[in-house]
Amino acid sequence: MKGYTLVRTFHLLLFLLLLYACGKGGVPAVPEEKTAETTVMVEPGPLEGLKLYLGYCFVCHGQKGDGNGPYAEKLSAKPADFTDSTYFRTKTDSELYDFISKGGIAHGKSMHMKPFGFQMTRDEIESSIAYIRVLNRHERISRAESSDFNGSEIYKNSCVMCHGEKGAGDGRVSKMLGLKVRPITGELLSQYSGAKLYNIIQDGIASDTTGSGKYMPAWGASLSEQEIINVISYISTFGE
């Protein structure tokens, strides 16, 4: 009987030690609940897509999306016409995403359509598709005043491809097209009033009036009045 009591006592002590070790002080440990990771879903926006389109697509596909961009005539195959609603009605967003991400060669199409999956995020590609759908439907984006981009954003997403990072005229597109882009210097800016700069950005300079080596697209249909003013303020800092 005594031996039985000792065994029970031993088992009780062992049980208490286990409780202490697991529960820190006799309270059974409660496994911590893992906090679920919160994924913020960003709705693809055509306005953001427009900004990306101006930066990546317009040079081939054109500002209107009709495949008549300034670089299109140098290509062996005409860029896709995003205004062809009959054709694009047969394409799903997933198909467009796959095409933009992997490029033309992966789909037996033009080699000039580069794979953008290495340069653009998923959200950016989806936003670009949202804007392409606007072009498919022949619509225009309703631009709220609060949605205007600042001058730096506009320049980096629309102008840098021709004018270069610092306005030296050495952008990637200017090199591809052989465009002679005048450097944006204080001397150049002093030759134009604010109103003249506004008109140039809004209406552009047609290539047939200045020779094949020069081209300035019209941004009036893509940029709001305030955005044009913002980008003029930004490029004015190049002359300081």
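That was protein one. Protein two is written in the same sequence-then-structure order:
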Amino acid sequence: MFGASIGRAGQRIIDAMVRWLARGHFNPNILTSIGVAINVGSGLLFGFGRFFWAGIVLIVANLFDMLDGQVARLSGRVTSYGGFLDSSLDRLSDMVVFVGLMVFYARDTEFHSTLNVFLAGAGMMGSVMVSYASARAESLIPKCDVGFLRRPERVVLFIIGALSTRPSSHNFFANRMPAVLWVLAVGSYWTFAHRMYHTWIELNRTKSAEELNEDAAKQISQAPDLRREPTLAHKPS
């Protein structure tokens, strides 16, 4: 109940911001670009090892990511290019964070870890493949957003990993970024495989439906004409 109240309060704040931005005729594409620029800053902070502040910046960046689409819908400025721009820049936002983590763990410091560099690279590749599979599948089927590790989940995991980082702490819940990288690396490929399987199932279902319709149409076209010829009436002679 308490969590739901917080959620409702947060949603009211976001709704108020959306209305204010829509009334101010803010271009949704500008909001998208600002969000990406802030995400780049988050990637830089990750690269320098400032994980806590990188997490805070990531929260702010994704606030813009939530606002742009809602502002576009409320102000009636939804465009095909806006959707394309948002989707494309989301991929960039994902990758700069992964690259920042790869740079941090590749540096010659006490936190150097070849394994974490590999996991960040694998997670980056997996996240791109998840997004590509969805985009390609939706040119063939209506929707392909299945899987438990979509972009919002990835962002939440990054934030958890960043805000939990306390190098001097030995608490079990501290310094969870390596665990986050494991989840991202494994989960992204699991989600990618799920979307591949889902697309295969949907295409086979569509193909079966089309074949049934073709068979039904063929049977109707080949059925004998059972209509009786009209009987000619003979007048009495």
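The chain has one domain: 11-212. Keep this in mind for the problem set.
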